[in-house]
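Convert to structure. Protein one:
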Amino acid sequence: MSSSKEEGEFYWTPLAIVQSIAIFCLAGIAEIFGGYFVWSAVKGLRVESSSADDDSVSTNTPADESVDRASEKSYNIVKKTWWYALIGSFVLVAYGFIPCLQPSAATDGFARIYAAYGGFFIVMSFLIGWALEGESAKPDVGDVAGGLISVVGALVIVFWPRR
């Protein structure tokens, strides 16, 4: 019995496209927030000097104070508690499974899925980082241009016709 579609071959449908983009976004959210939680506990976050008096965080020594030369704003490095790193680690473990849900995973395989995901990750890192860190992490023109190039590249990788 033969058909126009070979058995095991994957074909993009509108639903599969929406699922694929949603899974890339979910993977990005898990990786970025997991990494953010680990980073905030291990390295700390930049906080404007005037807003570093939150009791739920510990501020490092004055040696960790830095100045953003472009805006002349002073920042303190504020570390979260150890359990932020633990939560972030669990989120990163979950992230490792999310790309396996890609509808084209059986035909595209690990390398292509993760390469394409990289483009989405770049743009999401800029946007989520900006949302979390505020103006100190606002993307500039080069960030926007690079992000657009990466997303276009990711879409070419994912949707290029392969037969």
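Protein two, convert as well:
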Amino acid sequence: MTTMSNEEIIIERLRLKIPNAHIFKLPPKPSAGGWRGAEWHDKLWQGTLKVVERNDQTAVLLVDAHNESSIFAVCPITHQLDEGHSTNGGNGVDRCIDSSRYFVLRIQNAQNGRRMYIGLAFNERNDAFDFNTALEDSRREKMAEKKAAALGRNNNYTPFGSSSVDYKMKEGEKIKVSIGNNNTTTIGSGNSGGGGAAARRRSGKTRSSNTGSGGFLKPSSKDTPSRLA
């Protein structure tokens, strides 16, 4: 999705979309150890989770399942792009120590900048895996972009996209790509979609977007705890 306002161009990329996300009010954090999903009992909300990128910003959006313009909360992601960081720890998302399906999000009020923490849980471990993968893909791509920009400054290289040539697709313009056996994919200028390993993995799955069906799974011994390094 591309939004234009005067000379400003905002490119929005949907990296991941998960239809069933559960949000909890957090109890006081334990003095020792980390967050435990088994201790969460006060459920606040259920809806769709999206990982989106707008230019150089990444965020986790919690939106209504039937009206995605209705946003419940926003968790800005602060990627660790220094060479010394090999993980995304401290980016605004923490993991629970008793279940791989439970996370803690640091959400932020856009008007006053006030921050608070909420609990996030998924029904399936595959959803949690895709969520982790989407955030890590985003971090790695932004780190690569940072390295490329630094290399360009050192070598007086002109980055792609800084040319005066207009490569944007015109309204209604389409590209046809043939891939073997005369299978043709049409890419239109109005299309928008996700990207990255998580989105590709989910593209072959058929998932229900009905948030009212299915029971919620509490942490169990079958879960694989994930701890931050």
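Residues 183-193, 206-214, 225-229 have pLDDT under 50 and may be disordered. The first strand starts at residue 2 and ends at 5.
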